[in-house]
Amino acid sequence: MTEPRRPVADFATDFDHTDPQWVSDPFPIWDDLRTRCPVAHTDRYGGAWLPVTHDGVAAVAYDTEHFTSRSVIMSELRPGDDDLPAPIGVAPPITSDPPFHADARRMLLPAFGPKKVAAYEPFTRKLCRELLDATAGRPEFDAAVEYAQHIPLRVIVKMLGFPAEDGDIFRRFIHTVIEDVGVSAEEREAEFEASEIDEYLDGRIAEHLAEPRDDLTTFLLEAELDGQRLHPDHVRGTMILLMIAGIDTTWSAIGASLWHLAQHPEDRRRLATEPELMTTAVEEMLRAYAPVTMARLVAEDFEFEGCPFREGDWLLLPFPAANRDPGAFADADDVILDRAVNRHAAFGLGIHRCLGSNLARMELRIALEEWIARYPDFELSDPGAVTWSAGQVRGPRTVPVRIP
Amino acid sequence: MRVHVDQERCQGHNRCHAIAPDLFDVDDLGFAHELGDGAVPVGLEEQARLAAANCPEFAIEITEDA
Fold first, then answer.
1. How far apart are the two ends of chain B, measured CA to CA in Å?
2. CB neighbours (10 Å) of residue A143?
3. Which of A53, A123, A322, A330 is the 20 to 30 A CA-CA neighbour of A315?
């Protein structure tokens, strides 16, 4: 078993994104750091840095020379020089750097453009209604577990053309990748091995090779880079990326939005009576409750904002902190549903802009529209029972609500 | 007033197209471009300003008529 992690002494010099204080409420930590130490450090994870201003986060996101995306999830398992199939990385294109990144990403972009994504809107809306139907007549239920969680999972499974009932396999695997980052490198490798995810994906790939379909799996199998079909490792890696990047993230955004609305009757009322607010409201939820923090590895020694960055150091890229920077957003900690100017970075900045941002936005909008239409009034039944995920994807994993 | 999307900066966030669909469109890859020559019809100036002010990549340039 893993030892409990040592409590953080000072987030400026010893930060840990799995610390209970960070997990439950990271915003005061970032506010404090912004005033006294805008680039924090920790010796944990073998050494890591943490910029917390919008400018600092943006500078790193745009700098693909001094930072590599070879690994984007910070853990004790540090990629060595030989153990990743460079230049692809384990989950291309997010784990790739230029120039390979551009081609791998370009190949995927058409599948996630706004117009392609709109085709999944009816499926998503029907799914949301079915999930809400299942809660009918119940005075209390869990909005994160019974509603938010299922929406992105079922949409990605449908896009990949996998059996709907296989969702649980993904749920377990994603949890291992994203949340079990506090374990030792050996335990982490053993967990990946035990997940048998490669075997599962190979099975689905074989089915699609035998019988091509109109879905993302066949799209990936038929895609070409430089006139060549993708290497099987690339296909599997991209499938894994879609699961990891597309499920817990949007689950988190939907859950956090419902958590917010459960506590803000005025915002609920406005969404119910002014549906045209939904466009800015979705962007504001994404800003205020951005789920995703990325990671980079320092590619070469250099000085960043006076800090001695060394090759191989980790760097956490907290887009949620950038979105709460009062230097970049007026009233940064207030949720303002009609915020007109909102240059948020919830989907990242630069060449790694979230490939699924159009999909995530569509799912969040439909999930909120359908929820508010069904339950314009609701509240937290037990605020103390709300739990938040640990690691680089932040969202509530239990949101017990009461329907009056 | 004219709008222009800097293709070097645009990363396909799709904010401008969502805010001002009469001024911007996106291609099959999701990258944005101004419609026509970027001239902003009378009455859409505020949409143009909002589209620029919401671009996370600062990719939209606005030129005010002299």
1. 9
2. 25
3. A330
Per-residue pLDDT at A225: 86
pLDDT value of position A232: 84
Of A113, A344, A351, the CB nearest to B56: A344
Q: Is this structure's pTM higher than 0.80?
A: yes
Percent of chain A, pLDDT > 70?
96
In this structure, what token pair is assigned to residue A265?
A: 């009757």
Reported ipTM: 0.96
Distance from CA of B39 to the nearest CA of A (A): 22
DSSP tag of B39: B
Whether the link from the prior residue into A87 is cis, omega within 30° of 0, is: yes
Cα A261 from Cα A263, distance rounded (Å): 5
Question: Whose CA is closest to A213, among A155, A160, A157?
Answer: A160
Angle at A94 between CA A281 and CA A253, to 5 degrees: 25
The distance of B46 to chain A (nearest Cα, Å) reads 11
- What does the radius of gyration of chain A's CA atoms come to, in whole angstroms? 21
Does the beta-carbon distance from B26 to A113 stay under 8 Å? yes
- Burial group, residue B4, by CB count within 10 angstroms (0-12, 13-18, 19+): middle
Contact A146, A169 (CB under 8 A): no
For residues A60 and A75, give the distance between their C-alpha atoms in angstroms, rounded to a whole number: 19
Across A285-399, the runs of DSSP E, i.e. the strands, are 293-298, 302-304, 307-309, 314-318, 379-380, 387-388, 396-398
